[in-house]
Fold GIY-YIG domain-containing protein.
Amino acid sequence: MSFSIQRIRFDRTHVDTWSATNQELTNWPVVYVLDGASRSKKLYVGETISADKRMRQHLAGPKRQQDLTDIRVVVDERYNKSVCLDLESHLIRWFHGDGRYDILNGNDGLTDARYYDRELYRESFHDVFEALRAEGLFSRSIPQIENSDLFKLSPFKALTPDQAIAVEDIVSGILEDLRDPTRASTLVVEGAPGTGKTIIAIFLMKLLADIRDFRSHDDVEPDSIFAEFFTPESAALLQDLRMALVIPQQSLRLSVKKVFKKTPKLDPSMVLTPFQVGESRDVFDVVLVDETHRLNQRANQASGVQNKKFGQINERLFGADAPHHTQLDWIKARSRYQLLLVDGAQSVRPHDLSPSTLNAELTNAKNAHRHYPLTTQMRVRAGADYVEYIRMLLRGASVPRPDLGDYDLRFFDDLGEMRQAIRERDREVGLSRLVAGYAWDWVSKKDPSAFDIELDGERMRWNSADKDWINSPRSLDEVGSIHTVQGYDLNYAGVIIGPDLRLSSSGEIVADRDAYRDKKGKEDTGHLKGAFTDADLLVFVRNIYGVLLTRGMLGTYVYVCDGGLRERLRGLLK
């Protein structure tokens, strides 16, 4: 396909001259980019069937005050409205993922619709990208951008139908409730790995911020399902809205902070720990909790300082340090609305919220019609069937391998071969890593020259970085644990199932307490204090491998340490 990029100064004189000499574009679908490369680092992407009219609207609206200097119009005689909407969405996502510009777009109008010859058109989008990159608008390649956390965790996403329904209903409910100052509520989004729970939280915060700052129809996508929320009344209701996103895991929290730093109207200070919410003197209007199942009970914490803080927060909020108070109780005490993003099958430690607490929240949300299930698989190319297949295998079911399409699921008998295969995939597509269950001591934490895992002649170390390990310089040579990868995407995951999961003499899958080395993972604490059985340990170990085996978007490679389990899974996975 052939296209051209026409460049015009963003002022009335040049727009009038351009439109007079390009009258065919007054009624033709095009995509355009407004940027301030010479003055600012701001950029806006749009599409229109009337370029001259749209530019005059921008010149008369808020874009005029954004120090934008140039217009680039992408023209192709074979473009139609659907193609332009798709190209617009791709460019917005790529520009935000590149991180070079502050993107002035809202996230309410991104699409992923099907249309005639879509794949052929999308191939041409790469040529448009490269042409814009040649003009200095992009600093990295598409693979580099799409492998970044800034791209993967971006609020600029085309939502799946079940995500869109959830977001629409959540926004509608919040706006309705805000009209009654006495009303409060708890909403629950539930979904398996890869259904986009984190994306909903980030998308929703950006959308609410855009509605809050609504001033002109210049920025609203009229065909968006969220267009009805962009009104002066809604903006007034949200004017003083105080929002926070709570992320229990340190590594993921740091990555999301980086995304918020690069996203206009969001700020890293909005991403908090549960302790920060509990200690806050202010009451939040809306608190979104990612990985709610990883919130803590009143149990032995990671440090003496945190143990002391837990008690102090309980005393300040509830008058006493009673053992039944959890971090979820803190969040409810310090906020009017809570959005809980949950998957109970991803709890990995005894001090995580108890199943009874999670089930109570689910039941209450369902009864209040505030429960939103997510079923569309966004991460794993093989779809939801793969996720359920893995979970059934870990529960001991002998189920046949489903049709996984071109998903690259492989079983390895030699760890060295799997390690080499992961290196090859990383050279090809990037973001390919080895991960393992916590079945080896972390010796290298105190002695960097020591090795932690020695198998099949391979000597390896655990992750040397506990924050953003996947993107750290040495990650390809190391092995990541559950605490470094939960919540993240990989292109390929090489999973080492350690001796902490094995086959018993009776043919049952069991957890080996001695082989499981996460002290906090088998501590007699939380809701299991005094009754932490091997069956309870099996639930956590099984959940850990359920998470690790569902990180790979394009493929998963598997190596099993226990001989009996290796024979069982080889026959089922191959």
Q: What stands out?
A: The chain has a mean pLDDT of 93.
